[in-house]
């Protein structure tokens, strides 16, 4: 929840590089090869090459890793982004594109560690990438726009109209584009740039979109539901997957199944024709940020908050390899019944409280009181926070949640979240004083 700042980036990257080198050089046996381990932060993006032999993942640790799927070995750690790598897409022939918090898109060759091209694509974080059948690709970003790019990275078209973050983009069978925004609108863009988009308004903010070969559109909602829309823009149906926002979405290559992941780690495999959940992936209970099917549709790769990429049987939902651990001990169990702990529960996916908890999507809150903003070692803070002069106290933490992160910390990466009830804010402060005190 609270995102203060960054200690020396070189040290952090050196540690991450060491983790990656261990992954590269440690021989993988048949069981350990099933999980891809090497990132130093939550895995935000997963893409698989059409040949099915190579995957690329991106993380909050600012790196991408190219993996050999046959044995789970990391072939290369790729670095160029100045923030989290939020999206990845396979471009064919071993090439990939990545996009990140820095608003840039990098195009990577099949071999080597240097991008072919880096594009200053957007004025805000890029949230999604999609590949077309003709070598083109598209991006969606929090600057309210989407864009169409040639295979070489030349801008072909800029799509404007969303009122806020654009979280998803997909190609239609006819060569058009579909974009999904936090403004709760789905926009269907014809191939002809002279024609205006069809705008479909849904009942919730939208976090992702895919399009089936027959043109049907499936959208991931912040209401925990999948929403189904026809190629013409008619709202067809909805399917409840969970009680919390869906933040990851993938479509099987044949278009018959959809995988949807949520903030609490629930992943459902939904049969598109019947709108029914046919299998559930049982993971460690942390957010699932990214999903991808293998080209043959037999496997699903999921990237999560625990920095691991897991592999699943896409038809049965069973974990491939060693049995996946169940959700760990509830870190708030010792504070059961406390009002402040319940207020904090929404923050637990991104922040730890203990000295050995470490950083997640946000920095650890251990020892936060009296700490200067943007000073936790190993966490990659935004430049705006690094430039601020602020110390975390009961008063500053309460003010943060009274007015909201965007107003109190301009330039923060923290999601907008307010605690409008004064008693709840005080309960949260009291809880944090107790739970984060040095021990």
From TrEMBL:
Pfam families: Cytochrom_C (PF00034), WD40 (PF00400). Residues 335-436 form the Cytochrome c domain. This is Cytochrome c. One of its GO terms (molecular function) is metal ion binding. It comes from the Bacteria. The lineage of its organism: Bacteria, Pseudomonadati, Pseudomonadota, Alphaproteobacteria, Hyphomicrobiales. Keywords: Electron transport, Heme, Iron, Metal-binding, Transport, WD repeat. PROSITE patterns: CYTC, WD_REPEATS_2, WD_REPEATS_REGION. WD repeats lie at residues 36-77, 159-189, 281-322.
């Amino acid at each position: 929840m609270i995102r203060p700042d960054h200690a020396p980036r070189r040290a952090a990257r050196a540690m991450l590089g060491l983790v990656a080198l261990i992954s590269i050089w440690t021989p993988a046996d048949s069981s350990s090869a099933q999980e891809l381990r090497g990132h130093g932060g939550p895995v935000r993006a997963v893409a698989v090459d059409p040949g099915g032999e190579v995957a690329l993942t991106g993380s909050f640790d600012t790196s991408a890793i190219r993996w050999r799927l046959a044995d789970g070995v990391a072939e290369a750690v790729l670095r160029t982004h100045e923030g989290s790598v939020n999206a990845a897409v396979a471009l064919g022939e071993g090439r990939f594109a990545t996009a990140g918090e820095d608003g840039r898109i990098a195009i990577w060759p099949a071999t080597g560690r240097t991008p072919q091209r880096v594009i200053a694509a957007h004025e805000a974080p890029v949230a999604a990438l999609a590949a077309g059948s003709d070598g083109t690709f598209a991006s969606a970003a929090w600057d309210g726009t989407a864009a169409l790019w040639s295979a070489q990275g030349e801008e072909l078209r800029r799509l404007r109209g969303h009122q806020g973050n654009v979280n998803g983009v997909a190609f239609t069978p006819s060569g058009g584009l579909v974009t999904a925004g936090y403004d709760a609108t789905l926009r269907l863009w014809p191939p002809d740039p002279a024609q205006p988009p069809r705008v479909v308004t849904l009942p919730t903010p939208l976090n992702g979109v895919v399009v089936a070969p027959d043109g049907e559109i499936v959208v991931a909602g912040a209401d925990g539901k999948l929403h189904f829309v026809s190629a013409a823009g008619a709202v067809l149906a909805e399917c409840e997957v969970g009680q919390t926002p869906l933040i990851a979405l993938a479509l099987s290559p044949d278009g018959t199944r959809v995988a949807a992941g949520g903030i609490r780690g629930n992943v459902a495999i939904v049969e598109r024709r019947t709108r029914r959940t046919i299998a559930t992936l049982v993971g460690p209970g942390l957010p699932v940020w990214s999903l991808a099917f293998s080209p043959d549709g037999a496997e699903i790769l999921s990237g999560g908050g625990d920095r691991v990429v897991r592999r699943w049987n896409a038809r049965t939902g069973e974990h491939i390899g060693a049995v996946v651990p169940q959700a760990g001990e509830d870190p708030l169990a010792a504070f059961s019944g406390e009002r402040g702990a319940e207020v904090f529960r929404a923050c637990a996916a991104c922040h730890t409280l203990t000295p050995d908890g470490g950083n997640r999507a946000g920095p650890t809150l251990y020892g936060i009181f009296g700490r200067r903003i943007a000073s936790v070692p190993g966490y990659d803070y935004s430049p705006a926070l690094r430039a601020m002069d602020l110390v975390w106290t009961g008063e500053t933490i309460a003010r943060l949640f009274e007015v909201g992160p965007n107003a109190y910390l301009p330039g923060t990466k923290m999601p907008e979240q307010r605690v409008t009830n004064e008693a709840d804010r005080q309960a949260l402060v009291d809880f944090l004083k107790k739970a984060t005190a040095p021990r």
